[in-house]
Write a structure and sequence with these properties.
By secondary structure, the chain is mostly helical. Helix content is 60%, strand content 0%. Bound molecules: heme C. This is Cytochrome C.
Length: 114
């Protein structure tokens, strides 16, 4: 048996193990963001697919897709509040949310699937 043949199954095992580890990490990341959104009160006015008081997060992701300054602009909206971009109902400011949480929430909103 050559060294190459001996190594091949090892490499396959390594890839499988990496995939098994990566998958739950990715799934947990977005579950955590959803939980953060719930805990931060976002989901009393927003849902991923339906307009409630505020726009559906899927609509926000669609509107800002490909816009370079989307993260900065939406971070400002969540922190300071926003009005008249989507309608006449304003979004209140979320000044007490830690900036790292706001960034995480906005990144998650921007990744909402259509
Ligand atoms: C009291 C209801 C309410 C809550 C709570 C709320 N939102 Fe909003 N949100 C709105 C409304 C209404 C709008 C549309 C504002 C407008 O027309 O400019 C909006 C708009 C947005 C937008 C788009 C802003 C833009 O500049 O286009 C994002 C992103 C967003 N909300 C995220 C969040 C996140 C994240 C949270 C939780 C921290 C949150 N919202 C909590 C009502 C709410």
């Amino acid at each position: 048996m050559t060294t190459l043949q001996a190594r091949r199954p090892l490499r396959a095992t390594a890839v499988t193990i990496a995939a098994l580890y990566a998958w739950p990490v990715l799934a947990t990341d977005s579950d955590d963001a959803a939980e953060l959104a719930r805990a931060s009160g976002c989901l009393s006015c927003h849902s991923q697919k339906e307009k409630i008081v505020g726009p559906a997060f899927a609509s926000v992701a669609e509107k800002y897709a490909g816009q370079k300054d989307a993260l900065a602009e939406l971070t400002m909206s969540v922190q300071n509040g926003s009005v008249r971009k989507w309608g006449r109902i304003p979004m209140p400011a979320h000044a007490s949310l830690p900036p790292a949480d706001v960034k995480r929430l906005v990144e998650w909103v921007l990744k909402t699937p259509q």
